[in-house]
Each structure stands twice: as structure tokens, then as C-alpha cells.
User: What shape does this take?
Amino acid sequence: MMSMRTTLVCAALAAVLCACETEQKAGELRGTAAMRSGEAIRNASIERAIVSQRTLYPFHFVTGSAELNELGRRDLGVLARHLSSAGGEIVLSQGSADDALQGARGKRVVAVLQELGVPNDRAKLGDGLPGGDGISGARLVKILAAPSGSIGEAPSVTGGSGRGGASTGGGLQ
Amino acid sequence: MRRALPVFLLALSAACASSSTRLQDDPFERATADRPPSAQTLHAMARLLAAQGRDDECEWALHRLISEDPDFAPAYNDLAELHLRHGRTAEAAASLEAGLARAPLDPVLLNNLGMCELQRGAHARALERFTQAVAASPGDARCRANLALALGLLGRLEEARALYLQVIPPADAHHNLAIVCEARGDARAAERERALEAQLRSRGAP
Assistant: This one.
């Protein structure tokens, strides 16, 4: 009799504990929800770094071509989203591209920005070089601030951006 | 004793329900959930055989799985892993390419094919695969770091640095670049990266 009572108590406890575990797990992010949440955090962190660098590199383009590859379009989309209201500049790193190819890439970036919804009159290929005359190769694509946006000037890109050969960079700061 | 039985059954069913929820939430289980039972069984069996080191049988199971369910991408990946364990890089790449023919945008297959290309010394082809992998899975830090590695091995250090800085702290980025430079035989660049790393670490950078 005693043994049966003990068994009953143990079984009841087991049932209660199982139910408790199910309840507890239901409150946590699991499975797809947890994966999506993690992915959103990772995406946000990488997007922050892309915006911080504000640079399109040769690896964003099809080799030897002015056409952006899938990654280039995706990263330019991140920059366009960020810069479309406040404005700013996107640096085009030249790498080993010659001047003609670099110029064509600049024009293509402006065109893709327009495809991405940046108005025609607000995305322009800059004449100057970022950081002054001492830095060769890079070109700027300027995105003007939206008229209804901030009153101040469009933020400019200063230093860093991984241009220098021995730069300590300014990625995830 | 007889009265205790329903309570036991209740406990058992609660445990099963909890375990079933867990299985549905597991990414691996979810990927295999919509597979026909034979494919599920074969894949589980292949993984078990791989874990036991019975690679010949595992390979047979994976080939059969692919012939029965050619759209099941993890099988191509598992087969590639098996080939790589035996140093058969060309066969591993062939398996991943076969998988990509069915699932061209699968980031895992693209990334792993990039690794095979790196192992074969085909850095430019690796760069292409890693670029596709990052485009397919932009938030995947591993793919971005691999893309940085391929760029670094091609001597495109500025781009490699920028990509590393997107996914790891600056000191670690310089550490990785130093290793890449050493692999390229560029001792001076490696030394410069090590100095930058040391400078950051001395300031308490992680």
C-alpha cells in the first residue's frame, strides 16, 4: 500500500514537472523564432558596419565590369536606405580598376541608387576625392539630404573607411 | 498499482509532447520533416554511420539518399564533408556542385564549395563562391570572414580588412590579416598587421 502510494506520488510529480518544463519552454524564443531573432541581430550588426564604412569595394562589382554583383546591390541597398533621408557620401574604392572602369562604376552606382528609390536629382557622382588630393583612386557618390529631412548639411565621410593601406579602420566601433 | 498506470501514461504523454515540440523547433529536424520517411531514415542513418566512423556505409547511404531525393541539399553537404575527411577535395567539390545544380542559392553549399576552392589554391574561384554565399546569406559572419580570407589571399588587403571589420573586432581583424600575409609570404605586411594588433591590444581592445 505504501509502495503504491509512493509510486503514485512520483508519477504525479513527474507529470507536474513535465508540464512545468513545457510551460517554461513556451515562454522562450525557440526554433524558427529564435533563429529569425538571431539573424535580425546579426544583420543589424553587419548593416551598422556597412553604414559606418560607407564604401563600395571592387568585390561589390562583377570582375572587370561596372555592373554590381548581388552582394554589391544588397550592400548598396543598405547604404541607400540609411542615406536616403539624411544624405551623405559613398566612397568607391578603386582597387586595381583603371580610371575608365572606375568612372563607369560610379555612373552605374548612381543609376542603381535611382533604381533603389533615391530621386534622380539627389544622387550625384562627386568631382572631388575623399580626404583631399593625397588619396588617389577613390571616387565619391553624393546623396543629398531629403528636403524634409534634417536642416544641417549632409554628413561627410571623414578618414578611415578602410582606404589606407595600414588603417586601423573604423568598422565595428 | 493499477490506479497508478493512468498517471504514468499522463506523465509519459506530457514528456512526449514536450519532446515533440523540441523536435519541430530543431532546424535539422525541420529540414528533414517534409522529406519522405525513407529519405529521413537514410539521412539519420548516414549521420549515425558518419559519427561511428563507418564512412563506406555512410557514403552508400548518402548516394542512395541523393538518388531518391535529389533536392535534399544537406545530403550533398554531408557527402562533401565525408570526401574532405579523406582528403578527396575534387570529389567534395563535385558533390557540392551537384547540390548547387539543384539549389543554386544555398549559402552553405556555396560557402563550402568556396572552402574546397581555397583548399585547391583556386583563390579567385573561392572569392566568387564566397561572394555568392554572402549575397545569399548577408548576415552570416562566417561567410563574410571567408570572403575576407579569399580577398586577403589574393593580396586585396584593403578589401579583406574592411570585411573583417564588419564581423570581428579591429585587433582580431589585424591578427587575421597578419596570418593571411604570412601565408602569402609577405613578412613585412604581416609584421605591420601584428604591430597594429599589438597597439590595439595595449589600449585594451578585445
